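Reviewer 2 asked us to include a model.

Predict the structure of this chain.
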Amino acid sequence: MDALVLACTFTFATTAHGQSVTAVCPMPVYRVIAQCGDPGKPQGGWTVRGPLAGANGSTATCRGSRIIDYRVETA
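Predicted model (structure tokens):
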């Protein structure tokens, strides 16, 4: 795994609308990707891509569900 990706900071939040993950990384172009769904049925999930990172990082939100897995995609 790339050393810069290992240096990312991930923050999680749970709201009435679902769960979100925000990634802040020391690289110029990246986005966070979340796998959403029911933890008991990961094969039935879907993928949410956050926007390209800005000053506050990149956030992906699983609306009405939970985050099963997450990662950072670099350009």
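Residues 3-74 form one domain. The first helix runs from residue 3 to 6. We have added this to the supplementary material.
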